[in-house]
Amino acid sequence: MTSVYIYAVSYDLGFAPNPFGGLCTLACCKPKIREQAKLGDWIIGLTGVKIRPAMRCVFAMIVTRDTSFDDYWENPDFAARRPVRNGTPKKQVGDNIYHREMTTSRWLQEDSVHSQVDGTQCPLNTGHDTRINRVLLSDRFVYFGASAPPLPQPVRDALQYARNPRDYRRFDAIQAKPLIDWLAPQIAANPNRVLADPIDFASSAKRFSSTRQRLI
């Protein structure tokens, strides 16, 4: 049965998820969702404590493919998703950042949002992201970004969704039908579109510090 995963987006940079180029990818953060989500499942990100006002829908994606980090890195179709830290904001938040050293199989991390301030590899972010060697991809999504609409109160009431959880919540398709009924027409009307820049796009040059739990 289809599952629906809902979580609070801490920072909306266009990095996790990355919605550009007609494809929405979740390659970093949320390892439990990346481990459990099956093809056909929904992943929905809402604003929360760090992005006010809360309970606005940043994006909704239906998982249509998955791949490993190494395949994501090596596939020429995804080369444009590698980060370029002196590039445009869109290039700065590229999420194709992990691959393994050929001789040792040690994880390498490209200079990215999850690197240290000087661009060197961040062991904590690397360990957190690569604990699940799986990237989720979607070509059935809508990304609202800064135009994120509020989750309608009847939908919240039906889900008994008073506040965002610490990690995520999972619903089955029957439980989440009011939410799917609200989002499915918006995906149909705006297939694979970025309707507005990410909320935190102005901070695309920053890095996420796993020790401080914030952008620096």
Describe what you observe in this structure.
With 216 residues, the chain is α+β, with helices and mostly antiparallel strands. The chain has one domain (3-203). It contains six helices and 13 strands. The chain has helices spanning 31-36, 69-74, 89-92, 123-130, 153-159, 177-189; strands spanning 3-9, 24-26, 42-47, 57-62, 65-67, 98-100, 107-109, 135-138, 141-143, 168-172, 193-194, 208-209, 214-215. The strands form four sheets. Strands 10-1-3-4-9-11 form a six-stranded mixed sheet, with helices on one face. The chain has a three-stranded antiparallel sheet with strand order 2-8-5. Strands 6-7 form a two-stranded antiparallel sheet. A hairpin with a 6-residue loop joins strand 6 and strand 7. The radius of gyration is 17 Å and the shape is globular. The model has no long low-confidence stretch (mean pLDDT 97).
Low-pLDDT stretches are none
> Mind summarizing the main beta sheet?
6 strands, mixed
Task: Tell me the helix content.
Answer: 10-25%
Spatial arrangement of strands, main beta sheet: 10-1-3-4-9-11
Number of strands: 13
Q: Helix and strand string, N-terminal first?
A: EEHEEEHHEEHEEHEHEEE
Computed structural class: alpha+beta
Query: What share of the residues does DSSP label as strand, in percent?
Result: 15-25%
Count of separate DSSP helical elements: 6
Termini Cα gap:
41 Å
Count of domains: 1
Overall mean confidence score, pLDDT: 97
Give Rg in angstroms: 17 Å
Shape: globular
